[in-house]
Automatic annotation (TrEMBL):
One of its GO terms (biological process) is carotene catabolic process. Keywords: Dioxygenase, Iron, Metal-binding, Oxidoreductase. Belongs to the carotenoid oxygenase family. Its cofactor is Fe(2+). Fe cation binds at residues 118, 167, 233, 417. This is 9-cis-epoxycarotenoid dioxygenase. Binds 1 Fe(2+) ion per subunit.
């Protein structure tokens, strides 16, 4: 109402090389990264994949990604991302809202390997920052793009001494922040170890690495031990007035269950402060609830923010509701807003959209609008009624009041990360 355009829904597959190949042959050809390579059966799948590659049935140079982890709008392009492959450019028609696949994108040949599904964009400069991780050295490589999408040089991080699961990272105004967590990647474990290439190493001491954001080599990175700190996702990071780096992230407790028994995982949102002058590390929990998949006002990426909108894992990884956190408080006082979806109803990751503000406009200055002036968006599925809907909630209200609700003609599967364009 009120002169608004009607809602449109488009549901399309990203037509990756894997999708097109398997659709053509009528069945699975390329293995899934984590699920397929497990134990003796995983070795067999790897052998079959090798034979298919040698025989010309598939070309591994074209990648085997599914482009289903996240979406990222940058340099006037929309990308569908998966961390073990190149980005795929997709297009949303302004006339119909329909989604189509443009193709695999290598930034004019400057991208030499996969790219994280969690790049970061600085709303003030328009620059983007990214990385890739690998089971072989260098285990971590950092790079960034200018606002026009021109990729700068790779910075291999050779001080990452073992292959770790580095799913996400953060940028501040002066640094890039990486976590070296207790989830490790070791392909030989398929045959000689746990049976899986990805496992937990409880003897390992987690670290946080802080690298100057425009560094030319890894000689400038500094590593700080933060025992038991195992974030899969990082909400935000910034520098405070005392030359310390502050990192906000859900810490994955019982990390050994992260992939096999996710319902046993509890994620505790923590604030970790690293003093770059003294090397001291301090940390505090924000709230006791099981919280993951958080979002903030995108104007505050890399800058101090106050509010976080994050999913309630009950049971993890399903999201039974959304909590609004005040990072300046702690304990029960940190929860300043909450919406439960109801019995049998679960949603996806929330996404914050500022009210009438172009979050990609670098000309917007802090202080022009309150940080939580906007809306929280998500999909919710009612498992009893087999019905999905799209919710728009008032981000400022204590109960995250629903201001719009769109019933959808088909189910939206539980997914990972979305965006607003």
């Amino acid at each position: 109402g009120g002169g608004c355009a009607p809602a449109t829904v488009s549901s399309r597959y990203v037509r990756t090389y894997k999708y097109n190949l398997e659709r053509e042959v009528g069945g699975p050809v390329l293995p899934r990264t984590f699920a397929a390579f497990h134990g003796i059966a995983g070795i067999a799948r790897g052998a079959v994949t090798a034979v298919r590659s040698i025989s010309g049935q598939m070309n591994p140079v074209n990648g085997f990604g599914v482009a289903n982890t996240s979406l990222f709008y940058f340099a006037n392009r929309l990308f569908a991302l998966w961390e073990a492959d190149f980005p795929y450019a997709v297009h949303v028609s302004p006339e119909t809202g329909d989604v189509s696949t443009i193709g695999r994108f290598d930034f004019d040949g400057s991208l030499f390997g996969p790219m994280t599904a969690h790049p970061k964009k600085d709303a003030d400069t328009g620059e983007a920052f990214a990385f890739r991780y690998s089971p072989v050295p260098p285990y971590l490589t950092y790079f960034w793009f200018d606002r026009n999408g021109n990729k700068q040089q790779d910075v291999p991080i050779f001080s990452m001494e073992t292959a770790a699961f580095v799913h996400d990272f953060a940028v501040t105004k002066r640094h890039a922040v990486f976590t070296d967590i207790q989830i490790v990647v070791n392909p030989t474990d398929i045959l000689f170890g746990s049976g899986s290439a990805v496992s937990a190493d409880k003897a390992k001491v987690s670290r946080v690495g802080i690298l100057p954001r425009y560094a030319n080599s890894d000689r400038e990175i500094r590593w700080f031990e933060v025992p038991g700190f195992n974030p899969i996702h990082i909400i935000n990071a910034w520098e405070d007035e005392d030359d310390a780096v502050v990192v906000v992230a859900p810490n994955c407790l019982s990390v050994e269950h992260a992939f096999e028994c996710a319902d046993m995982v509890h994620c505790l949102v923590e604030i970790v402060r690293i003093d770059l002058r003294t090397g001291s590390v301090s940390r505090r929990a924000v709230a006791a609830e099981n919280l993951e998949f958080g979002t903030i006002n995108q104007r505050y990426v890399g800058k101090k923010n106050r509010y976080v909108y994050i999913g309630i894992g009950n049971p993890h990884p399903k999201i039974s509701g959304i909590v609004k956190l005040d990072l300046e408080a702690s304990g029960s006082g940190a929860v300043v807003g909450k919406r439960e979806f109801g019995e049998g109803c679960f949603g996806g990751e929330p996404f914050f959209v500022a009210n009438d503000v172009d979050i990609g406009n670098p000309g917007i200055r802090e202080g022009e609008q309150e940080e939580d002036d906007g809306f929280v968006l998500t999909y919710v599925h009612d498992e009893k009624r087999d019905q999905s809907k799209f919710l728009v909630m008032d981000a400022k209200s204590p109960e995250l009041d629903i201001v719009a609700e769109v019933l959808l003609p088909r189910r939206v599967p539980y997914g990972f990360h979305g965006t607003f364009i």
